[in-house]
Write a structure and sequence with these properties.
By secondary structure, the protein is mostly helical. The protein is built from 9 helices and no strands. The chain is elongated and about 75 Å long.
Amino acid sequence: MNYETPQAGPTRSQGPGQQSALQTLTALSKVHAGKLTLTFGLVLLENSLMVAYPLFAGFAINAILDGNLFRAMLYAGVVMAFWVIGAIRRAVDTRTFTTIYAELAVPVVLRQRSQQQSTSTAAARVVLAREFVDFFEDHIPIIATALIALVGAVGMLLWLEPWLGAACLLALILCAMLMPGFARKNEELHGRLNTRLEKEVRLVDSVGASTLTRHYRTLAMLRVRLSDREATAYLIIGAAAATLFAIAIYELSTGIGVKAGHIYSVMTYLWNFVIGLDDAPSVVDKLARLKDIGKRVDPGMDQKAERPA
């Protein structure tokens, strides 16, 4: 795929960021629509089977206890289908995303040249551009898995154990209310971190030991602050998870005629919900980092996406 070299009009004073992270991601989606549709279709199918997994497992447990071998063996078929789809998805996504990055790096370099950026800044931004591809390769599947797990688990729990499902829904709403503030602070920290990284090649090449020491100590401090925020979010989600499991144990212990398969399904759906909730801070952090990168890295792919075939 050929990208045209941007016109050499803009200068350094104009600054990067003509294209936001959302615009770059949208443009990538248009240019590589076929590859991404296939890959994310497999992600959706894999996660749909994952949502059905605890329900089939519960049916299998009850069938085993009832002595119905044929019905119990259907569960093995569901497991096999899950692994086959997962294997195909893993083979496809590596081919898709390595190709996308190879085609993205060239327009990023050309755009940085047209903006008269220094070599160190241009090199850093080529590395940062990889974050867009990583977002598609790693984080969209994580987001899809988390969303399907959260929505599917809440829906199934509202059906299986309504009070527990309502408690999970409340936890999800509270999490959604807290995430925007978490994202804003993380974007600020990532902005400071990325600014430092853009200057790193120049610093390594020209400054003395004391300046280098301050640089790397600042990098370490920013990374520690981001890590501490993630750890705090992890602890809060852990407290919510413990509360939800306590509610589940109480509901299942006081229920009448509760079967083993029902208990397994409820506990597994609740665990899936907690795992999905646990992914939220890292996904929000990734989006905050990507938003800052979008202000720095402009491959000009919006023009490519809009150009007639």
